[in-house]
TrEMBL record:
PANTHER family: PROPHAGE INTEGRASE, PROPHAGE INTEGRASE INTS-RELATED
Pfam families on file: Arm-DNA-bind_2 (PF12167), Phage_int_SAM_3 (PF14659), Phage_integrase (PF00589)
InterPro entries (UniProt xref): DNA_brk_join_enz (IPR011010), Integrase-like_cat_sf (IPR013762), Integrase_catalytic (IPR002104), Integrase_recombinase_N (IPR010998), Integrase_SAM-like_N (IPR004107), Min27-like_integrase_DNA_bind (IPR022000), Phage_Integrase (IPR050808)
Domain of life: Bacteria
Record keywords, A-Z: DNA integration, DNA recombination, DNA-binding
Gene Ontology MF, one: DNA binding
Entry annotated with the keyword DNA-binding: yes
Family listed: Belongs to the 'phage' integrase family.
Domain Tyr recombinase positions: 207-393
Gene Ontology biological process: DNA integration; DNA recombination
Protein name as it appears in the record: Site-specific integrase
């Protein structure tokens, strides 16, 4: 068992432990008091835990140590979580915990094992672009709520994508959200209060989907290049996400049962698990989808495992298709410029308009329940079906003998309004 001890001659604490059959003692600049002992005891617990797991990295904890320079100990160039425990801030105050830049690398290594590859890339990008420039040289425990609010305000001045002048409120929230988890973990390890308190997400305007009408869908499918007709037919009438259709393989197309089995997706050019567990689903093929896939099988079934592929048999690049096929086609047809993802929204609204059961539609879409369905899509149904309350009025009038006449009249006026 290791221990936290103090040198008699200096009164400074040091860590005393054994590793690889050797006694290791690492000096700190911390005075011998209860607070500093608690900090080092937590660090020692982590060291001993990693030694037991067989993954202790001496250089990561003590990169300044002479022992870390020895070939026996020097196993990693990553800087230590514990290094910053014996430093002070620029204004002379005690630094709380390691530098933010040190801790976040540790947090990333520990967390990313549970993430999808695309999420790992996304978080790494935010760390390098936003977090490190703002907080990298500051002790993780010295960052205040005011610092976080200033950081969020600075994000509102960053140029957005796709022609947006600034980052959207939704994007800013997505950048801030991992910080909450980072500081919660750091506060727990180094015994300070997380600064991420009373910081609520920015209000995000309600998302506005723009589904196509059935007439527009038919116009698009009839007008698109012949080699993409099957692709867009499946997109519009299956409700599949972009990564799901681009990563669709023939082994997941069951012509006998007339179902598409969604089991994988392609994100950032790599095969991955579906967006959520509920996204793992079987989609019933309607007639146009069944015919389109049969036609596509005759075209690519023998050349690739992917349903929609390029000449090399690799999955199609949806960004390339969008720029070279989708947007030029909408412009040619005089239709408003909309993202191809609207094909998924279109499928949902057409199913609702046709009177399909909401539970069935939710399963087709890969939603866990019908909440999203009613929240996002139901407002489009009256325009598509002309079901504007008249069916309810007829139901009430059929049983008018059991209702007072003034109630029936009030209901009629309310429906007409």
């Amino acid at each position: 068992m290791g221990a936290i001890r103090a040198r008699k001659e200096t009164g400074l604490l040091f860590i005393d432990f054994r590793w690889e059959g050797k006694r290791c003692r690492e000096q700190t600049n911390l005075r011998d008091n209860a607070t500093n002992r608690r900090k080092l005891e937590k660090m020692l617990q982590q060291i001993e835990s990693e030694i037991k797991l067989g993954r202790f990295d001496y250089a990561r904890f003590f990169p300044e140590s002479k022992s870390a320079e020895n070939s026996v100990f020097n196993t990693s160039p990553i800087k230590s979580i514990g290094t910053a425990l014996n430093t002070t801030t620029e204004d002379g105050a005690e630094q709380k915990g390691p530098l933010f830049s040190v801790f976040i690398e540790e947090w990333l290594v520990e967390s990313q094992i549970t993430w999808r590859r695309s999420h790992q890339v996304n978080i790494r990008g935010m760390i390098d672009k936003y977090y490190l420039p703002a907080f990298g040289t500051v002790g993780v425990g010295n960052i205040t709520r005011a610092d976080l609010l200033k950081f969020r305000s600075s994000l509102a001045k960053v140029s957005g994508r796709n022609g947006n002048i600034t980052l959207s409120a939704n994007r800013i929230n997505k950048i801030m959200d991992p910080l909450r988890r980072i500081f919660e973990e750091a506060a727990d390890r180094y015994d300070f209060t997380t600064p991420f308190v009373r910081i609520k997400p920015l209000k995000v305007p309600r998302s506005d989907v723009q589904p196509f009408t059935l007439a527009e869908v038919r116009l698009i499918i009839d007008s698109v290049r012949p080699d993409f007709k099957n692709y867009y037919t499946v997109r519009f009438f299956s409700g599949m996400r972009t990564g799901e259709i681009d990563g669709l393989k023939w082994k997941y197309v069951d012509f006998e049962r007339r179902v598409i089995m969604v089991r994988e997706t392609i994100v950032a050019g790599e095969e991955d698990y579906t967006k959520t567990d509920s996204s793992q689903r079987d989609i019933a093929m309607c007639g146009p989808v069944f015919d389109a896939l049969e036609n596509q099988y005759r075209a690519t079934g023998a050349m690739s495992e992917y349903v929609f592929c390029n000449l090399q048999g690799l999955p199609v690049d949806h960004n390339n298709i969008t720029k070279r096929v989708w947007y030029p086609l909408l412009s040619h047809l005089g239709l408003e410029k909309r993202r191809p993802y609207q094909s998924r929204h279109t499928a949902a609204t057409l199913w609702l308009a046709a009177g399909e059961a909401p539970e069935w539609i939710a399963r087709q879409m890969g939603h866990a329940n019908t909440e999203m369905l009613f929240k996002v899509y139901s407002r489009y149904v009256p325009n598509l079906t002309r079901r504007d309350g008249s069916a309810f009025e007829r139901l009430l009038l059929q049983g008018q003998s059991s209702l007072p006449s003034q109630v029936i009249e009030a209901i009629k006026q309310e429906v007409q309004a």
